[in-house]
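Take a minute with the sequence and fold tokens given here and flag any structure token that looks odd. Thanks in advance.
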Amino acid sequence: MCRFATGMFVPIKHFPFSSTQHEARVLHQGNLQRESRSNARQILLPTMQIAKMQTPQQEFNKDLCKAFVAADIPLDKLANPSLKRFVEKYSKQVVPHPSTLRKNYIKQLYDETMQSIREDIGSNEFWVGADETTDSAGRYIVNVIIRALRSDRTSKSHLFASREISSANHETIANTVDDSLRNLLPDSSYKQRMLLLLTDSAPYMKKAGRALKIFYPKMIHVTCLAHALHLVAEEVRNHSQTVDKLISNVKKIFTKSPKRITMYRQMCPDLAMPPKPIITRWGTWLKAVDFYRQNYADVKKVVASLNPKESKCIAKAQELFENGSLCTNLAYLSANFTFLADLIMKIEDEALSLDESTTIVDDALNKLKQVQGSLGPKVLQKFNSTIEKNTGYEELRSVLRAIKFNETDQELGTINLNPTQLCKFTYAQIVTCDVERSFSRLKGLFRDNRHSFLSVNLEMFIIVNCNANYNYVTAENKDA
């Protein structure tokens, strides 16, 4: 039989030449070689195996994309000719177009990140932290973090959801937490394994916690204790108007004024510039109080040398420095309340055990009880009311007393936990600082010149970024 190029077979006897002559022809030999190569490829490299293999170029593209996202470098920078030539010269690989990385590798990195989070959580019980912010485009964003609860050591936090919501209320918050957990942990047992929810003390957050309690029966809802200490520090500021006005006006004097900054540095070469506290950065106002207490004479000298006609803030600061009560106010606040800033920094440490964290809160209470003067009772009352409203914190303390002292009280009787789950609270956190820091990264990623981000792409970028740098809870980022 002879097969034509069309695939039709015809008996050899219809042709005037023999089969030996046919087999010697170039066309026949080419068909045999092509058939042989095709069979060998099917045997050695099945189709599924080919699909899973990555070429060196694909591996380079993926690693390059991950490095840029982790370092928060816009992918469009790869279109820069100088950078492109530099990378290609030393990597010996072709730098792809930014759109190639964005379309083909971001989703892949996101999926791998989510899978690594699932593997780290495994079958362990876990706690979840959630908070809401407004980005520079005016959108409401909810970030959700998760951390495995282990009885022998602390675990690292993972940002696994960063969702845009229509409005900030208890319903949207609860739905976001539940939907993101269902997406991360597809098995149904996760509702029994969530033991702790951490949020701030906003009323809608508390209401969201009560709603989630229906579906997560073993969950204890605790509002952040670092927020609580910050609220106490804010109470100190609210009752210290003279010092607050001084700090505010001196801050204005040196803001965007190179001339005054130069004069300050010439008159006080060994002194740092006056701090610029930000209300949302916990404890920075109290740190500023301590600065003015230590450097009262030097700062007063510089402010007095300025022309009050240049600005109202200069005139006001000079007037405040002449106030006889300012000096004693600074001394009183520094001696009795600046310890709150130090305790806030201590309680932010992610390596703390539950016992160590609650000891810090108890230390704050004991020191506030010792404060004399008219302000002491007001601040103590604020502390007590804040703790009393945090009902989940008392439940958590009951768990701690059970595993530490073998004490059983009324609160523990209402908690449906087995002995293994009780032990998992040994390294439970009572602060949401990791969520606050993820907001800092989110706002850094979503800069004014990067407003073309879609919500879904922004979520993938920030999750890959935070988890590629899972040590983002560092000293340089401790300002929440």
